[in-house]
Amino acid sequence: MVDLRSLEYAELEKFIVDLGEPKYRTKQIFSWLSLGVDSFDEMTNISKSTRRKLSEVSFISTLKIREKYISKLDGTVKYLFSLDDGNCIETVVMRYHHGISVCISSQVGCRMGCGFCASTIGGLYRSLTAGEILNQVIYAQKDIGERISNIVMMGIGEPLDNYDNVIKFLHNVNHPDGLNIGYRHISLSTCGLVDKINMLREENIPITLSISLHAPNDEIRNKIMPVNKKFSVKELISACKKYINRTSRRISFEYSLISGVNDSVENAVELAGLLKGMLCHVNLIPVNHVEERDFHKGSETDINKFKNKLIELGINVTVRRELGSDISASCGQLRKKVL
Ligand code: SAH
């Protein structure tokens, strides 16, 4: 059985035509899928016999809301969704002045092993299908009843460790007959899989790339991010430079400030040196405390010192505003609690 939500438009078209149906059905079915139907019976402009034919050879993957929390502080909504196989993932809807953003997961668990991250604690269960990634946007939008305009792939999992499905998802969510969300309204965050960054560079998908850098050198990065043993800071930065040259897109560097680990003024100076002259932006995130881990955020003074040093050295920088802090909105925390 084929999950129709995991097919790219052209694949769906081939599937429909192979069933002996006219090509124009593709557009109708693709639109229904994006609207969030749970079954073929809801596709009211498709004949009963076609619907029966479809249900004999395909299915529609769905999500069920297992838990839902709404922040009293800022209206952030956090979902724990059940997948069809009973696994669960987290999705977060955030309200900004420029529109509604959804933060989505790309895998059940993660195998990257970053020392400060809750999502990786139980390892990787499996990657999500393209349909399961898309469903988070579809079902969140359906539930809140408002249009989602921005997507950040910063939930559970390493998106570039699920490369093919993520690319399919990006094509589908951008399709004019589907949710039609512009690539420029989508960001993808990676811990730095250099080989995949190089592939993404050639895809002609102008999304914003975020790099979880978190350290200015190999010594520190090796301690907190095992991926750095495979791809060094130097290799990563060089891949980023090529990416910027090719796509003319600004890269965003995520830097979680961990007290006593990577947050000294010397670290800021080294970071500025590393990023000097690049078309980029640094996002500082005071590290969220995770129970199992012994990492803590520094004082506001430390954070400001780090930030001001970067500004002084000509680096574009912001400190990430915390949203949904009353509902453990950061990735991995809720799923772990419920399991
Ligand atoms: N695997 C991807 C995306 C998921 S994590 C990546 O590594 O980029 C989204 C962001 O949150 C990453 O920058 C990640 O490093 C960061 N992060 C994870 N745990 C955190 C924590 N406890 N405090 C602050 N940031 C954290």
Give a quick precis of the structure.
The chain is α/β, with parallel strands linked by helices and 339 residues long. Helix content is 35%, strand content 20%. Strand 4 (77-82) and strand 5 form a beta hairpin.
Explain what the structure shows.
The structure is a single chain. This protein has 339 residues and is an alpha/beta fold. It folds into 2 domains: 2-59, DNA polymerase, domain 1 (Orthogonal Bundle); 64-338, TIM Barrel (Alpha-Beta Barrel), CATH 3.20.20. The protein has 11 helices and 14 strands. The chain has a 10-stranded mixed sheet, covered by helices on one side. It has a two-stranded parallel ribbon with strand order 1-2. It has a two-stranded antiparallel ribbon with strand order 7-8. Helix 1 crosses helix 2, helix 4 crosses helix 5 (163-174) and helix 6 (194-201) runs parallel beside helix 8 (233-247). The longest helix is centred in the middle third of the chain and has 15 residues, at 130-144. The chain is globular and about 70 Å long. The mean pLDDT is 95. Bound molecules: S-adenosyl-L-homocysteine (SAH).
